[in-house]
Structures are given as C-alpha cells and as structure tokens.
Amino acid sequence: MRVATATEAKQNFGKILEDALFEPVVIKRSGRASHVMLAHREYERLKKIEDLYWIAKAREGEASGFIGKEASAEILNGILAQEDE
C-alpha cells in the first residue's frame, strides 16, 4: 500500500493513478487518511465479496425464520385492514 499526501496527489495525479492500478494508494490530508484510490478491478472484486456476504446473511435470515418483504407487507396490511373495520 502506498501513502501519499493530498499535495503529492495533486502534483503527481497521473503517477498516483498508475500506482493505484497495482496497489491501493492512501491519500492523507492534514496527516489523516482521507481517501483511498484503487484499481477498478480491485473495487469490483471487493464489491463482489460484499455482495456474497449479504447474500449469505439473507440466506441465514431466511433459514432462521425471517419471512421476507412480501410476506411481512401482507401481514401488516391484514392487521391494518382489521383496525379499519
């Protein structure tokens, strides 16, 4: 992982972009990390991992008895309809 200051990133933007193709580049502003640049393919890889995580969580929820959006809405609408009577 490469670390660059915000000033360095402004002055050497092309080089920072090139470096980000091979490793994440942390941009620091006032001594604190404020941004991370990474290659689009790495971003896509991380998004895929995140999607798989949430798919697994949804399956866990269904397996533990979570009934889902449509069934929840149906039950709620039934309760509200009874209250209107």
Structural features, described:
With 85 residues, this protein is of the alpha+beta class. The protein folds into two domains: 2-38, 3-Layer(aba) Sandwich (YefM-like fold); 41-84. Helix content is 64%, strand content 18%. The chain contains four helices and three strands. The protein has helices at 6-11, 13-20, 40-63, 69-84; strands spanning 2-5, 25-29, 32-37. It has a three-stranded mixed β-sheet. The longest helix has 24 residues, at 40-63. The termini are far apart. The relative contact order is 0.09. The model has no long low-confidence stretch (mean pLDDT 91).
Topology:
Elements: E1 2-5, H1 6-11, H2 13-20, E2 25-29, E3 32-37, H3 40-63, H4 69-84
